[in-house]
Specification:
Elements: E1 2-3, H1 4-16, H2 35-44, H3 52-55, E2 59-63, E3 65-66, E4 70-74, E5 77-81, E6 84-85, E7 88-91, H4 93-104, H5 108-115, E8 119-120, E9 122-126, H6 132-145, H7 153-157, H8 161-172, H9 182-188
C-alpha cells in the first residue's frame, strides 16, 4: 500500500513535466461527474478517508525498472521509498485523477496534515518492454486489469441485511427471490 500523497505527488510531477502517466491506460479520466468518482472524492473529503484503502480496488502500475528500497524520514515518520522508472498507471486512472483533483482543491499546507494516514493499494510491476515477449505481457496486463464484469446496482442492494431478511420471509412462504445468479445457491444453505 502507498500513501495517496505519493500518487498525488507523482501525478503533479507528471503533469508539470508533461509526462503521459496514463498513456498505457485504456480509459480516460471521466471527471467527477460520475457516481464512482463522486464517491471517491466524497470519501477523500470526509472523516472516513482513513478507510479509503478498504473501499478502493487499488492501482496497477507498470514500470521499466524498480530501484532498491531506501529508508527515508519525513515529518518525524520513517518509511520505505523506492525509485521507479517510466511509470504507467494501467488501471486506476479514475482513482489517481480523482485523488489529484480532490487534493488540488486544498491548500498545500493542509495536505500532509489531512492525508498522512490515507492509503491505497498499489501494485507495481517491473516490465522492461524491451522484447516482443515483454511487450505482449505488458499489453495483456493492461487488457486483463481492465476486464471486469459489469455490476448492476441492484446486486449491491441484494447483499444488504434487509434484503436477506425479505428473501428469507418469501422463502418461508414458498417463493424464491433472486437478484443475482448466486442467490439460488446461497439459499440452498439457509
Amino acid at each position: 500500500c502507498t500513501p495517496i500523497l505519493n500518487l498525488y505527488d507523482l501525478y503533479r510531477k507528471a503533469d508539470r513535466d508533461n509526462y503521459p502517466i496514463f498513456d498505457a491506460n485504456i480509459r480516460d479520466y471521466l471527471g467527477t461527474s460520475g457516481a464512482v468518482n463522486k464517491g471517491i472524492a466524497a470519501t477523500l473529503s470526509s472523516e472516513d478517508r482513513n478507510n479509503f484503502f478498504y473501499y478502493n480496488n487499488g492501482i496497477t502500475m507498470i514500470v521499466k525498472k524498480i530501484g532498491k528500497p531506501k529508508t527515508k524520514t519525513r515529518d518525524s515518520s520513517t518509511y520505505l521509498s523506492i525509485e521507479i522508472t517510466d511509470p504507467q498507471i494501467v488501471n486506476g486512472c479514475q482513482t489517481v485523477s480523482t485523488i489529484y483533483e480532490t487534493l488540488s482543491a486544498l491548500p498545500e499546507s493542509k495536505l500532509r496534515e489531512l492525508y498522512h494516514d490515507t492509503f491505497v493499494m498499489l501494485k507495481i510491476l517491473e516490465i522492461p518492454k524491451d522484447t516482443e515477449e515483454y511487450q505482449k505481457l505488458s499489453e495483456d496486463i493492461v487488457k486483463y486489469n481492465n476486464s471486469q464484469n459489469a455490476l448492476s446496482p441492484k446486486w449491491f442492494e441484494s447483499s444488504s441485511s434487509e434484503f436477506k431478511r425479505i428473501q428469507i420471509e418469501f422463502l418461508n412462504r414458498g417463493f424464491l427471490v433472486c437478484i443475482k445468479q448466486s442467490d439460488k445457491l446461497s439459499l440452498i444453505h439457509i
